[in-house]
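Title: Comparing notes on inverse folding

I've been comparing how different people in this forum approach sequence design from structure. To keep things fair, I'm posting one structure and asking everyone to reply with a full sequence. Here's the target:
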C-alpha cells in the first residue's frame, strides 16, 4: 500500500487486491482528501475488475485459519481491523454478491460479523445482505454510531463492539 505518484492512480492512495490464493488481481485507489474534485469518485478500480467476485483481505483472513470474519464495506476498514488483530474482509462497496458469500464458505468461514458503515446506505445494505449470509453462515450484526465507519471509529468503540458480537 502506498501513495501513487504516476499513472492512472496519480495522487491516490493505492493498495493491491488479492484473490483467495494471495495472487494480486487488481490495484485499487482511494482519494484521501475530504473534498472530492468534481466528477471524481472516492474509490478508483480498474475498468475490467469486478469487485463482486473478490473480497479484499480474504487471503490474509484465510491464512489466520479463523472460522470467523468481520465484514466491512471499505478496504481501510479491513486494514484497521486487521491492525487490531481482527480477521476482516471488505466488500469494496455496500453490496454483497452470492459469489462473495461462496468465497467465504470455500475459505472455511462459519461465522461472520457484519459491520457496515453507520449511514443510510450501510444500514439498508445490512438488511439486504443478512439473508444471503445467513443461508450459509452464522451471522451477527454490529451497529456503528451514526455516520461512523470502522476506519474512523475510536479503537475502544470497535473493540467493545467486536467483543460483544463475536
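Reply #1:
Here's my take.
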Amino acid at each position: 500500500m502506498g501513495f501513487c505518484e504516476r499513472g492512472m492512480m496519480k495522487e491516490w492512495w493505492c493498495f493491491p487486491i488479492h484473490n483467495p490464493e494471495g495472487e494480486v488481481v487488481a490495484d485499487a485507489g482511494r482519494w484521501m482528501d475530504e473534498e472530492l474534485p468534481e466528477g471524481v469518485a472516492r474509490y478508483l478500480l480498474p475498468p475490467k475488475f469486478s469487485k463482486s467476485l473478490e473480497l479484499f483481505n480474504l487471503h490474509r483472513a484465510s491464512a489466520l485459519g479463523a472460522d470467523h470474519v468481520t465484514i466491512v464495506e471499505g478496504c481501510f476498514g479491513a486494514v484497521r481491523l486487521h491492525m487490531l488483530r481482527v480477521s476482516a474482509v471488505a466488500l469494496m462497496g455496500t453490496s454483497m454478491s452470492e459469489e462473495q458469500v461462496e468465497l467465504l464458505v470455500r475459505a472455511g468461514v462459519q461465522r461472520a460479523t457484519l459491520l457496515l458503515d453507520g449511514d443510510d446506505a450501510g444500514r439498508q445494505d445490512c438488511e439486504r445482505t443478512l439473508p444471503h449470509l445467513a443461508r450459509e453462515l452464522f451471522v451477527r450484526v454490529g451497529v456503528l454510531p451514526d455516520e461512523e465507519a470502522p476506519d474512523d471509529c475510536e479503537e475502544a468503540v470497535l473493540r467493545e463492539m467486536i467483543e460483544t458480537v463475536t
